Automatic annotation (TrEMBL):
Protein name as it appears in the record: FAD linked oxidase-like
Source organism of this protein record: Pseudorhizobium banfieldiae
InterPro entries xref list: FAD-bd_PCMH, FAD-bd_PCMH-like_sf, FAD-bd_PCMH_sub1, FAD-bd_PCMH_sub2, FAD-linked_Oxidoreductase, Oxid_FAD_bind_N, Oxy_OxRdtase_FAD_BS
Similarity comment text for this entry: Belongs to the oxygen-dependent FAD-linked oxidoreductase family.
Domain FAD-binding PCMH-type: 36-206
Length: 460
């Protein structure tokens, strides 16, 4: 099949490096303003599963490699490679069955789109914290979403997937059908050996009283805030999210502090009484002398998305790295000191203390790396001349956390570093994933990060 036959075979659009609008298409593959010097040979904007099959078959026949682009949101720019890019951005179909409490969603459906559509039926899903991120990369990476303490990791709420494999075939995978493919689709991230073209999702009741309280302190109070958060998460219900945000002081507080730590407690409650009782339980342990306190704000998901969105303005240059740890005190102390010294005032970090384990065994899936606490450092800047300084700041922060790190979350890990890949899985899961890659994609059609045994040796 030549390029003209490929164009005729798909409903979507095919671009090559000779296309008049190639540069704008290439740039649009990434949300991040920081775009590496990589130039896809061909970009296929797929509109249907058949388009994906045609693109995969074309690549296999012509000896090209394939990378899959969902929304281009990963901070490591993995959607932009020197190969054939299958862009799923046009596949955003969504069907909701409120009686069965099931949704069928294509990969370009965003977290915000899904949350809005489900809310009309009084339903919800553990969608990701950023509204513009599509389900494709979010669910493939596992998905740490809203109310995960009660609803679980997002990929564990996936019932089945439709997948195009390296041989161009279409399969449906679930716990009973093609279970190896299903296992990998729930957490393999960019190492998945196929293209997911549809998800079947299990839904939950939409909490009727989502309420948030925010306490903001000088960043020097990090130890007191962490102690309060860790104590609180041992006793509150699992429907509480408690996050510390380390950042430049919000404008109303800029005259009182340069850098602050904001403790944000959100409860996903069924009733107003439940929400108020839980937030009162959280507030009872709050350190004194906060710079600002906002109590019991009404925060439906659309408001929560606006709160998160202010930290990620479009057009900026971004880099990020994550760590799971059993030592939230040390991790938060390191991140607080890092934010104080950040070369960009827009950079920030978050620290999350998770609910204690509930005794249930985590479902079998490629997503296999978790810990009692989670942290992510975000470098955010605007000037390309500051790339080196901001990347060095982010990576130095992770180096300081490394002695207490249990591993990483592949959805936001610094995948430009080799060891981040293997460190995003348990050793057993990583070995199984490599075996399945060799089984389902023996020729290496799909672009992969370094995933050899040498990486396993690095993580022990």
């Amino acid at each position: 099949m030549n390029i003209e036959k490929l164009r005729k075979a798909v409903q979507g659009t095919v671009w090559t490096r000779e296309s008049a609008d190639y540069q704008s298409v290439r740039s649009g593959l990434l949300w991040n303003g920081r775009k590496p010097d990589r130039f896809p040979e061909i970009v296929v904007r797929a509109m249907t599963t058949a388009d994906v099959q045609a693109a995969v078959s074309f690549a296999a026949e012509s000896g090209r490699r394939v990378v899959v682009r969902g929304g281009g949101h990963h901070f490591s720019a993995i959607a932009l490679q020197d190969c054939l890019v299958i862009d799923l951005g046009g596949m955003n179909g969504l069907q909701v069955d409120p009686q069965a409490r099931i949704a069928q969603a294509q990969p370009a459906v965003t977290n915000g789109m899904l949350a809005t559509a489900l809310s009309e039926h009084g339903l919800a899903f553990p969608t990701g914290h950023c509204a513009s991120v599509p389900l494709s990369g979010y669910l493939l990476g596992g998905g740490i979403g809203w109310n995960a303490g009660a609803w679980g990791i997002a990929c564990h709420n996936v019932q089945s997937v439709e997948v195009v494999l390296a041989d161009g075939s279409r399969v449906v995978a679930s716990e009973t059908d093609n279970p190896d493919v299903f296992w990998a689709a729930r957490g393999a991230g960019p190492e998945f050996f196929g293209v997911v073209t549809q998800y079947r999702l299990r839904l939950h009741d939409l909490p009727r009283a989502i309420r948030t309280s925010v306490w903001t302190y000088p960043i020097s109070q990090v130890n007191r805030v962490e102690q309060w958060m860790s104590r609180t998460m041992q006793v509150v219900p699992r429907n509480v999210e408690f996050t510390a945000v380390f950042s430049s002081a919000p404008p109303p507080l800029a005259g009182q502090a340069t850098k602050t730590i904001s403790a944000i407690a959100t409860v996903f409650a069924a009733t107003e009484d439940e929400a108020q009782a839980t937030l009162a339980q959280v507030a009872a342990g709050a350190p004194q002398d906060a710079l600002d306190i906002q109590q019991s704000l009404e925060t439906p998901l659309e408001v929560l998305y606006l709160m998160i969105g202010q930290f990620f303005p479009e057009g900026r240059r971004y880099a990020a790295d994550t760590n799971w740890t059993a030592d939230p005190a040390r991790q938060m102390e390191i991140m607080a000191k890092a934010v104080v010294a950040a070369p960009s005032a827009e950079s920030f970090a978050i620290g999350v203390v998770l609910p204690p384990p509930d005794g249930a065994r985590m479902p079998q899936a490629a997503f296999s790396m978790v810990g009692p606490a989670f942290g992510c450092t975000y470098a955010v800047w605007g000037d390309a001349r500051q790339d080196s300084a901001n990347l060095a700041w982010m990576r130095t922060t992770s180096e300081k956390i490394a002695p207490i790190s249990l591993g990483h979350y592949i959805g936001e890990a610094d995948l430009d570093l080799d060891e981040r890949l293997a460190g995003s899985f348990s050793r057993e899961a990583f070995e199984r994933l490599q075996h399945l890659q060799r089984t389902y994609d023996p020729s290496g059609l799909f672009h992969r990060l370094r995933s050899d045994m040498e990486l396993l040796e690095k993580v022990g």
